[in-house]
Design goal:
This protein is of the alpha/beta class and 197 residues long. It has one domain. Helix content is 30%, strand content 22%. The protein is built from 5 helices and 6 strands, in the order ββαβββααααβ. β1 and β2 form a beta hairpin. α4 packs antiparallel against α5.
Length: 197
């Protein structure tokens, strides 16, 4: 039996969409404290309370780094601090493996992971009623998610959810929807513990 030592790192991507539907993210990396779960660590670094009804905290992916670190990635949407600087995603490019039996891409950048998280949230809006209910409080985000994943039915379902909300006469439930959007940087995000550059 071979003993392998693996440490866990929690990467948290706080996601936001501008009024033009372009996505941006902030990135924070931490290690769970003793007795703290990865979910709790993600909420801690993003400043989200466990009972927050209008914010989704969801594990979207994981990856293993050669130095023995298992990185668990969480999407937090909407960004609880939209006034802070963020990195713009010029496009939603996902890193892919070179063959069906080799899923690990040769190169993974923070922008690839953020793009995957956005597409994962688009899937959840279409399939998970809890996520859908939380994100429908932020109509601009749902519209941006719909256009983020129009390669299949997820975007159509997200647009249908918006149309149903309009038909019911409900208004945006989030008064801070686009309050004080922070500056957005173009280019690569900051890479921290457990990130490849």
């Amino acid at each position: 039996m071979v003993s392998v030592s693996v440490s866990v790192s929690v990467e948290t991507l706080m996601l936001r969409a501008g009024t033009d539907g372009r996505w941006a993210y902030r990135r924070a990396v931490t290690v769970p404290r003793p007795g703290e779960s990865p979910d709790e660590a993600a909420r801690r670094v993003s400043g989200v309370a466990p009972g927050a009804a209008g914010v989704v905290v969801h594990s979207t992916s994981w990856r293993h780094l050669p130095e023995g670190v298992l990185v668990l990635t969480y999407a937090v949407c909407p960004d609880p601090a939209p006034w802070l600087p963020a990195v713009e995603l010029a496009r939603l490019e996902i890193a892919r493996g070179s063959a069906p039996a080799t899923p690990t891409p040769e190169r993974i950048e923070a922008a690839h992971v953020a793009a995957h998280a956005v597409r994962h949230l688009a899937f959840l809006v279409a399939r998970d009623p809890v996520v859908r209910e939380a994100l429908l409080r932020h109509r601009g985000l749902v519209a941006a998610l719909a256009s983020a994943d129009t390669s299949d039915q997820h975007g159509v379902i997200a647009l249908d959810a918006l149309a149903a909300l309009d038909a019911a006469g409900e208004r945006d439930l989030d008064p801070m929807r686009w309050a004080r959007p922070g500056p957005v940087r173009s280019g690569a995000g900051e890479l921290g513990v457990g990130a490849r550059g």
